[in-house]
Amino acid sequence: MPPLNARADAAGHAAISGADANGAAGAVHDLDRLILLGLAADLHRHSRLGRGAAHEADAIASDLGTAPRHRWIAGHWLAALHEAGLVSRNAAGHYHDLHAPRRAELAAARTRMEAARLALGYPAELAQLMLRSLRLLPSLLRDEVGVQALLYPDGEPATAEAVYRGNVISRYLNAAAAEVLRELAERATRPLRILELGAGIGATTADLLPVLTGRPVEFYLFTDLSPFFLDTARRRFDAGFLRYALLDIARDLPPRPGELDLIVAATMAHNAPHVGRLLGQVAALLAPGGRVLLIETVREHPQSLTSMPFALSTQDGPPRRLDGRAGTTRTYLGREEWLSALEGSGLRIEVDLPRPEDPLTALSQRLLVAIR
């Protein structure tokens, strides 16, 4: 990897100085285990899976009173429970012998969850999100409560900030991303043109904008699918070069071929129906020497099973996937798939972090930067 990879890594670790990530793998396992046991307990309580025979996932969805657009989620959960050894699946794909967690087992898992949260330096809001999602499962499945109620309880953004910004891996990745932008800004020979896709609550934006203070910037175009996030960003950020626009990455990107110096996509590029097509469009927008900066989850951990699937459901059911995820309920691409997709779009990898030996890899989020 070029020196930029080392500088970005050093900046990321400086941002989490004092955090001990050596126990990250065990802590992640404990967080995942709590959600898996909570799902097993709920399915045992409310579905026919506790009655001995083997059943199709769709029948379980019916037992749970699941809204039509969320029916796919039951099968997604059951596949995760099967992978964890908590339910059996026969050759026909029917599920049986669901593990029924006892109260003491659930209490112990909750205690380990709190210890894991502290070990990872996660704010209390993340643990509250996990517990709240388990309590609200029946209402979420029936579509009586939306995922926004999880991320914005009482309309406050603290939980969303904890998910996307206030945790050790986000602090590392955002600081590393800021270092990439600093290097780009120092080498720039003209005012920068930057596009951020699906910027959301601005969790990464907030670390990038200070790097640009006092530097020549033609524009920083902050885009999202939701007017809510654009309005929030207008109130939150104050920079004369900021511009705002509604943008759906499943459609067409802005018509600025060969003009952009940086395209940022933090925890959102996986939402594209076809990641290869999106990256091809991104590459076409970059000026020679321009970069794309991705922050991506490369493995779906069970701890997100009670929130992320509800955010992904469309009116027609599961999200439409036309790439290697087609025909599955996979949310994310793996690291090697991302690297292949970037290189297949004519981009050269400059940054790939955390390093393979870093304990932070257990958290399955990465910074990937590629240059045209």
UniProtKB/TrEMBL annotation:
What GO molecular function annotations does the UniProt record carry, in alphabetical order? methyltransferase activity
Return the Gene3D superfamilies for the record: Vaccinia Virus protein VP39
Q: Tell me the PANTHER family matching this sequence.
A: METHYLTRANSFERASE, N6-ADENOSINE-METHYLTRANSFERASE TMT1A
* Source taxon at top rank: Bacteria
- Methyltransferase type domain spans which residues? 195-292
Q: Which organism encodes this protein? A: Nonomuraea solani
Q: What is this protein called?
A: Mycobactin polyketide synthetase MbtD/pyochelin synthetase
- Kindly give the CDD domains that the UniProt entry links to this protein: AdoMet_MTases
